[in-house]
Amino acid sequence: MREFGYRRADDVTGAVALLDADPGARYLGGGTNLVDLMKTGVERPARLVDIRRLPLDGIELTDDGGLRIGATVTNSDLAAHPEVRRRCPALSQAVLAGASGQLRNMATVGGNLLQRTRCGYFADVTKPCNKREPGSGCPAIEGEHRNHAILGASEHCVAVHPSDMAVALSAFDAVVSYQTADGPGELPLADLYLPVSDTPHRETALPRGALITAVTLPAAPVAARSRYRKVRERASYAFAIGSVAAALEVHDGVVRDVRLAFGAVASRPWRAHAAERALVGSPADAEHFAAAADAELAAARPLPDNAYKVTLMRNLVVAVLTDLAQEAAR
Amino acid sequence: MHPSTSSTVTLNINGEKHQLSLDHRTTLLDALRERLDLTGTKKGCDQGQCGACTVLVDGRRTLACLQLAVAAEDQEITTIEGMARGGELHPVQQAFLELDGLQCGYCTPGQICSAVAVLEEHAAGWPSAATEDVRPEHGPPELTDEEIRERMSGNLCRCGAYVSIVRAVARAAAQQDESAKEEAA
């Protein structure tokens, strides 16, 4: 590991000023991803600015009934919070589906959004990787890509974003608040992650040195009946090979409102707008759920070894929406 | 200007304060084992995947291999060496002994620290990925074997002593419920 300086930030302004003054500095939250990547040399910061003890660890109801979640709230506290479980059970479930109890106690909301891909080539500094070393190539396309992207990838990178939490946040139009030396700013989560294109090393639209301070979920009554379902290669403590965050409101057997987002299929949480459009006004049955999944997955461009994900995602969408429709009928 | 790459750090471990001069790269795990001779906490994978290094930081189970020591300054750290009280084993330790919740023992300190926290998390009403319905009106989940397996999934045991580990955690949980009832009565 490269040697580095360490400073514990006293307040948000101070943290942002430290980053602004030092291009080699990085924020340290829970460190569960950053410290791991520093050990392997993927990340080589010259200084860490520790933001974990900043007073950004609250979860508050907003005036309109949404939730404002501080950036240093741990994954554990987010998942256990009664208002999160009441207003958006899919968010609690998504967080609980990720990592282990120990890691969720350490990991923060801001860090979860900014964690790096678990692509094996990205993690191995002896291999080429366009995300880690622009222009060096992407061995995953010809190599090990069983768990890589089927949507929105490019010939330069097919890595997936590993977060479960971000998938649920994406389904409910979360907004990310941040602070820079020039002042505060906001980005819809939908615009946080940049398209892969030929610049997979540029992952987010955050300005340089920005510190995520909070994530706000606008009020969405449909979120009260929501679920997160994750498929992985072992029963627990593994990254997704596919996941769905969904919410459904049915009236007289017809879909009135629906939210759908996919995980582990793209470089970002994938909001399934095409599927949502196909569903609103349709009968809430398996046939129409499958047709909606197909509408979204028509854009899929799988590689030889991850074509299974197209079927997997279709089946997941049908299963989750069927569960939600049955719950609505009770 | 090059920032200093080491600091003097006060670590509060099992109720005792230790002042150390530490390279910032030092993990809490290495500080415990290499600098303070607290070798009960084990190094397994050293990359956050096995749970052998689990300790409690301010009561929360934490992976010492991914925790920079300098960032844990002034927090209350409890290791396996600090679990027994006044010569009495912690009920979780006792249950692991009585029910053979181990074979080689290497993962055991991490398993025990993790299980102690699992009981507290459950008592606080936290749901898990095994919880059927996380909405608060459904009340806290019962600590079934399935719940225990899910909550303990961050601790690997390569001997495969899982069956006995689950039994040990269940017994400690039942004892905790009993003593809670006695206190209430």
From TrEMBL, chain A:
What's in the keyword line of the UniProt record?
Answer: Oxidoreductase
Q: Enumerate the spans annotated as FAD-binding PCMH-type domain.
A: 1-222
Entry's InterPro entries?
A: CO_DH_flav_C, CO_DH_flav_C_dom_sf, Diverse_Substr_Oxidored, FAD-bd_PCMH, FAD-bd_PCMH-like_sf, FAD-bd_PCMH_sub1, FAD-bd_PCMH_sub2, Mopterin_DH_FAD-bd
Check the record and name the PROSITE patterns matching this protein: FAD_PCMH
Q: What is this protein called?
A: Xanthine dehydrogenase family protein subunit M
UniProtKB/TrEMBL annotation, chain B:
Which UniProt keywords are listed?
Answer: Iron, Metal-binding, Oxidoreductase
InterPro entries in UniProt = 2Fe-2S-bd, 2Fe-2S-bd_dom_sf, 2Fe-2S_ferredoxin-like_sf, 2Fe-2S_ferredoxin-type, 2Fe2S_fd_BS, Aldehyde_Oxdr_Iron-Sulfur, Beta-grasp_dom_sf
Pfam families xrefs: Fer2, Fer2_2
Q: Where would I find the 2Fe-2S ferredoxin-type domain in this sequence?
A: 7-83
Q: Does the keyword Oxidoreductase apply?
A: yes
Q: Is Ribonucleoprotein among the key words of this record?
A: no
> Its domain of life?
Bacteria
Q: Which Gene3D superfamilies match?
A: 3.10.20.30, [2Fe-2S]-binding domain
According to UniProt, the name of this protein is: 2Fe-2S iron-sulfur cluster binding domain-containing protein
- Per the UniProt record, the source organism is Streptomyces composti
